[in-house]
# Entry
Amino acid sequence: MKKIIIISILLLLLLGYTPYHELNDLAVIDVMGLDYQNNKYFLYLNIISSKNKVAISSGDSLGEVFLNAKNTYNKKTYYKHLSTVIFSTDILSQEKNLFTFLKDEFTGIDYLTLATKDDMESLFNKFHKGNDYRSFLIKEKEDTAAITNTTFKDLLSYNLDDLKTASIPLIKNNNELTSNGLYVIEKNLVLDKELSKINNIINNKASTFNEKIKLDNKYYQTAIYDLNTNITYKNNKLKVKLTGKIDSPDTNNLKEIKKIMEEDLTKDIEILINKELTEKINISNLINYIYLKEKDDTFKKYKDCNKEITVNLKIERKNNYD
# Structure
């Protein structure tokens, strides 16, 4: 009897407050994909079950496509456990009322959001389980720093911030999930993985990544970690100071590798700043520091101010396998 009670409690914790006797009547969704092709909307739904079926519906509007998916495989479609939503870049660039629609239709706003340029059906044929995306995000964030957990709540806040340009992590299906940079929604613009990585580092949303560095025709696997960015603006000078630690299991002589990495990071920050100024976008937090001091003509001040970038990495052993 005790075992039955414990199992029932675990089910309630895992599945929320859905009454147990209703579960058999529900198609519980954890991953959703939204696409727009040939003037039609497409909705892809992963149903939590032993077989993890994927349901696809279509319609001429967002309202119709969700209405058509109201029941899935003769069960009521249930979104309370939605954890991940993948948007095609086509629907993000086409449907201007997408976020407003989703905010009105769904009570939860903490689900993870991703974008893709890939064919949505092919993506869902291979990767449709919630764990596929959770595992990918954890690994990619630690290994490359090119992706961070961006929720629907984040996207809504970007839309309400006059200084912030809404962006979303971009993924690609290469027989495995990989980061493909950052998609800037308002500009229909893709930033590559390096710019996505440096943006996450500047915004203190990523503190570690691994890099293979070539020195004297030899490669060294390098770990850069404990990264922290400090930004100040005063007297028309924007200071960006990045500190962290560096290590490599391939060598104890890291002096030249450290120099290469510091130069690369400095260059990447400069490229990101130039990209923001050229494309007139604000995906990093840099302009916010100017706005706190100069609320008029902020973007012009960002463009014209003196910029001082400092990267200082400390050589220190990292315990990778403890």
